[in-house]
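name: query_chain
kind: protein
chains: 1
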Amino acid sequence: MYRVEERMFKEQAYRYFLFGILAIAVSFFLSDWILWEMAKHANLSGDIREILGEVFRLAFLIAIIFAGHMQSRILASDRESFAHGLLTGLPILAIAIAQLVLSFIQADPGYFSHTELVVSTIMIYTLTGIFEELLFRGVVLNAFQDAFAKKSAKTIWVSLILSALTFGLMHLTNLASGQDGVGTLMQVIEATAAGLCFGAVYLRCRNIWVVVILHALTDLSQSIGTNGQTAVDVQNTNVNAATSILSILPSLVILLGLTLFLLRRSKMEAIVSTNQDDFV
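structure:
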């Protein structure tokens, strides 16, 4: 019986890994090539190209999920798990909303007169939140979990850390777009910490749409805060970021602290049990 279950887990893991690698490779690299070709024949703005890229990546990923028969596990949602997830992720939600409000207050008033810019920013980061959570929490985290036939607190932590590292390291691709090395390193570190926290919420509620909301709101609040700054503010921010990694220390402490709190020992037994039940 154990060997049958072990084989089932491994086959499931291989399928998730296969489709996950395919989704990452095609979604990121093929979409960039297609949009580059489109830009040569059509006068598309940078925001339109980015929106089209996110739409393509998301559509392809959803097709991959259905082709791999993973939709019942990844896309499943009900009111109870959604409400539980929002309550579990309430600290993240509160921080994101507070940052969003603060960004609106501190933003250059002229920023909001550019309606197209504001709308495109909202669309881009909403689509990004959906895509990245479906991929890194829905596909990748589940793949790492399924790689272990026997579920335990240790294997849950290993799966979470590996999926968060994958999420963080994917931000190295920003180097190709001309982002500086220090800024990219800071983004990788912060994204890894965010991946741990989002993954912890997902493990607690098993509802992908909760972490989609948390992710999208977090990214949106940071984006509006940056885009809405004056040129002097942006320059000062870049100088501070380049001179010291300590600029992201407060957010790292919060994210890692929340992760440890959400996955404390008293909650881990239920998480392990839920992961076992996925294959009953």
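note: Residues 2-277 form one domain.
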